[in-house]
């Protein structure tokens, strides 16, 4: 009887420590940010958050959520350590655009997060597999160049600025967007981006100070490695050990659909993180649909 009580006591202490860690939303100067329009990408964001914490980062993680996100989803995100901020959607000014692009201009709001010195934006369909805290050394604006000439807005480093945000808002209806979305807009806004120099995180402080501050810098592919890159040759076109961020860009094939593991080998990386995350968190025990999902992922690993 006594041992039962002390065992209970032990777990109460553990839970108290865990919840103190979760609730202590200590504010940092820098933050990781993602955007959630509805619950269908919830699992993506949760695994992304887990993957960031797995790299040892203690930076704030902010989830910007719009009205389509349920209270339940918000609760889970908070429990995972995300700071949840509500935002209203920025209407897409383009009349010719894919239907699902209705609110994508909302992403521009990260330029308005002036409470932070710097933010690293990550799409909900990315995961971090190696520390990317060095990205906060980017000066004003960093992103990847894809297909040799297009800026990809899936991973971006932004120095929030009211003047840049206001300027962008004033141009939203006039600047051309080749995608009909935020990415096309940003390509026109940062039209000189293909000529940007490569971001060098290991530059010494002295070298950093003597150089003029670049308006934009280009990130190595390692910070935004497309599974498309993998599919081409059935192996990563970059050194697998150096990979930092994997981006699951293949349209409807998202890693949270457990069956995609048969199609895409790099999905395994995502699923292992998900599996570990949900065995640790209590939702595994209390949420039926998650339990089914986790079980099916587990079965996949057994077969
Ligand atoms: C930009 O940020 C300011 C200050 O936080 C806020 O008052 C304003 O509503 C924001 N603008 C938009 C369009 O979200």
From TrEMBL:
Q: Which UniProt keywords apply?
A: Glycosyltransferase, Manganese, Membrane, Signal, Transferase, Transmembrane, Transmembrane helix
Entry-linked Pfam families = Glyco_transf_8 (PF01501)
* Entry's transmembrane regions: 269-290
What is the main EC category here? transferase
The residues forming the signal peptide are 1-26
Superkingdom to which the source organism belongs: Eukaryota
**Keyword Thylakoid attached:** no
Task: Identify the EC number(s).
Answer: 2.4.1.-
- What are the protein's GO molecular function terms? glycosyltransferase activity
User: What InterPro entries does this protein map onto?
Assistant: Glyco_trans_8, GNT1/Glycosyltrans_8, Nucleotide-diphossugar_trans
* Family that this chain belongs to: Belongs to the glycosyltransferase 8 family.
Matching entries from PANTHER family are given as: GLYCOGENIN SUBFAMILY MEMBER
Name assigned to this protein: Hexosyltransferase
- Source organism of the structure: Zingiber officinale
């Amino acid at each position: 009887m006594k041992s039962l009580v002390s065992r209970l006591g032990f777990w109460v202490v553990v839970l108290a420590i865990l919840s103190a860690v979760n609730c202590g939303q200590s504010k940092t100067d820098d933050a990781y940010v993602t955007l959630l329009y509805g619950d269908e990408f919830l699992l993506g964001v949760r695994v992304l958050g887990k993957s960031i914490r797995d790299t040892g980062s203690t930076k704030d993680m902010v989830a910007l959520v719009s009205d389509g996100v349920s209270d339940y989803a918000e609760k889970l995100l908070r429990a995972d350590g995300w700071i949840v901020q509500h935002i209203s959607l920025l209407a897409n000014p383009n009349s010719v655009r894919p239907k699902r692009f209705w609110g994508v201009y909302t992403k521009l709001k990260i330029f308005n997060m002036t409470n932070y010195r710097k933010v690293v934006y990550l799409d909900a369909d990315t995961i971090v597999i190696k520390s990317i805290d060095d990205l906060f050394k980017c000066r004003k604006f960093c992103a990847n160049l894809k297909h040799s000439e297009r800026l990809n807005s899936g991973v971006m480093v932004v120095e929030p600025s009211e003047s840049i945000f206001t300027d962008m808002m004033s141009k939203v209806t006039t600047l051309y967007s080749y995608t009909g979305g935020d990415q096309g807009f940003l390509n026109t806004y940062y039209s000189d981006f293909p000529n940007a120099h490569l971001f060098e995180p290991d530059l010494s402080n002295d070298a950093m100070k003597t150089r003029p501050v670049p308006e934009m810098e280009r990130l190595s592919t390692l910070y935004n490695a497309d599974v498309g890159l993998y599919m081409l040759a059935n192996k990563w076109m970059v050194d697998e050990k150096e990979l930092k961020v994997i981006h699951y860009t293949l349209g409807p094939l998202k890693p949270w659909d457990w069956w995609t593991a048969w199609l895409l080998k790099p999905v395994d990386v995502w699923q292992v993180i998900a599996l570990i995350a949900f065995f640790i968190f209590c939702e595994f025990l209390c949420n039926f649909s998650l339990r089914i999902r986790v079980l099916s992922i587990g079965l996949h690993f057994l077969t």
